[in-house]
Task: structure prediction
Amino acid sequence: MVAAAIVAAGCGAQQEPEQHEFPDANDPEYAASFDGETDSRISTSVGEEGGVVVLWPRVVPADDAGSLSSVAASLQERLRTIAEKALPGRPQDVRPEPERACPYRGCKGVSIGAVLAHAGQGCAVVAIVSRPGQSAANLVAWTSGTKVRASVVPFREPPESKIEVSDYRPCQELESDLAERDPAVEAAAREAGASMNDPVE
Result:
């Protein structure tokens, strides 16, 4: 299971795919298998019906991900706050590091997460919002210099292949850049929550 690389336009940064091999999380038998290695990046919770699962950000490439834990934690807290504002009163399930994806059967509520791409001391962020179940993910460019080449990706498909970064922002100075685009992330979360009563794709 290999994640696609982010396209870095104009910056010359080459992103290496993750090398560690995990069991195929798209295998229907995966969830029922507990005698082998478990992919720790998959959430051990599906959240509550009608709630929100706030996932840990996907840090790509995974090299030196530990050095970005504080940035990732700050992003997750920002996602939690946005979800609370967009979907007030909904129960939240905030997943610990490194649980960044819903299980194969999907989450029971809206899931919200992010891709945190990095190169040197620079970062780029894209928010990921999904309806309950095995639903496609909506991508929202969250930092300037970042764009998505497709705003929707199929369930469990790595979103990195749809992201293009022309300018990485300083990782420790993302606050104001993110704030400008918070409303777009909030709108995506609100839309996903409003459709909870609709049939899931």
User: Anything to note?
Assistant: Residues 141 and 151 are 9 Å apart (CA to CA).
